[in-house]
Amino acid sequence: MAAPRTMFEKIWDRACILTRDDGQSLLYVDRHLAHEGSGRGFARLRAEGRKLRRPDLIFGTADHYISTKGPTLDDIDDPDRRERVALCAPNAEEFGVTFFTLGDPRRGIVHVVGPEQGLTQPGLLIVCGDSHTSTHGALGAFAFGIGSTEHYHVMATQCLWQRKPKTMRITVDGERGFGVTAKDVILHIIGEIGAQGATGHVIEYAGSTIRGMSIEERLTVCNMSIEAGGRAGMIAPDDTTYDYLKGRPFAPQDADWETALAFWKTLPTDDGAVFDREVTIDAGDIAPTMTWGTSPENALPVTGAVPDPADEADAGKRAALESTIDYMGLQAGAPLSDLTVDGVFIGSCTNGRLSDLRAAAAVVKGRKAATFAMVVPGSGQVKAQAEAEGLDRIFTEAGFEWREAGCSMCCGFNGDIGKPQERWASTSNRNFVGRQGPGVRTHLMSAAMAAAAAVTGKFTDVRTLEENA
What CATH number does residue 462 fall under? Predict the structure, then answer.
């Protein structure tokens, strides 16, 4: 009888073509996602006289370099980035790939578009030239980011050399408290295990709290696996997954659906399968959470206070705390809820989906922005649906800017950045030094929490607003 296997091991075994004596394995790639940064790979193929090995398995969209202020090429100020976006359509036509270019209503952030279009499916090995490819694991895929050399290798061969990572299961059980979102859950997890806590591991998220999440919430959790050092994040497919995928444009149809469903149901981790590391989290311990420093692990409840370096016995850690506090312009012991904000960004592949915009709009409705705030939908379809529901009017009537879909301020490659020393509330996934502009101080939080900051002008426990709504 075969030994019980984890979900990750089942997908790895299916994808593995061979393993060398040095431990490197050659994996077959089921889905290759691309964006405008893929132009160099197409150029190299052209220069070397090669074709894509499987053009039918590569799908792309423009997201990183496009302007959120307008929908055309002319709205992109930087000429180099404008050229990269302009090349998407001719590259797609020449090499026979599906690419959602400017003007296509399906265009958006690649990690929003993939699940939305049904390209992301259980059991697939998915790669993309972007670290937050881990997002797609929310539907039971093994998905991870790759570098430019690996990107070209997949283009030319549809295969990739990798060393098998270890496995880690993070089990979150219990009912979430009032006002606690998926973003709070993952920030709490990273705060508990640290930014390197999952290094070298693929994380499987499990437990009643995870099973009770919608797909969009699961996408948020898996998106930030990389911020805990993980190679990927995964959640076992279940009825919630199947209901989400059924009928989507690129999902299996008719008889193929039944075949796919039968396969998907074999993927969850077997009883008795062993993980290299286990972590257990009580959902009851999680409150609305935000980051205070320059790493996602600097996470605390919004009701908390800035740590005091004097309380740290280790000299190296104490020095690091002092440096972080200095960069962030904070005072040790200061309540987080006393901090005022200069700007608010709601969007990104972490929290730019329709459910995120609905949550933010519920906080904003009937209130006015107390500081600059912009809302950037994660895709053209999210934008259209939000507008059909009137969410855009809620935001604009409150004084928020309603933008075109794109990565926007999450990466800051497109002109959406703050000014030095400004303090921003952000729904994105990284708060590194300079991530959203030189000298900008970024605090990560949920869409509802960011909306609360926008209408109060400071970091606010969203529960106090929702209770009075």
Answer: 3.30.499.10
pLDDT tens-digit series, residues 403-455 = 999 998 998 888 899 999 999 999 999 999 999 999 999 999 999 999 999 99
- Bridge partner list, 201: 166
Instruction: State how far the Cα of 124 lies from the Cα of 277, in Å rounded to an integer.
Output: 24
- Tell the residue number behind the tokens 């008719």, with chain if given: 254
DSSP secondary structure code for residue 370 in this structure: S
- Residue 257: exposure state from Cβ atoms within 10 A (0-12, 13-18, ≥19): middle
Alpha helices (runs of H) in 138-181, residue ranges in sequence order: 148-157
Q: Which residues contact 132 (CB under 8 A, 6 or more apart)?
A: 111, 145, 223, 226, 349, 350, 429
Q: For 395, left (φ over 0), alpha (ψ -120 to 50), or beta?
A: alpha
Are 274 and 309 in a shared domain? Answer: no
Whether 383 contacts 405, CB under 8 Å: yes
278: helix, strand or coil: strand
For residues 44 and 70, the answer to whether their CB atoms sit within 8 Å is no
Residue length, the chain? 469
pTM: 0.97
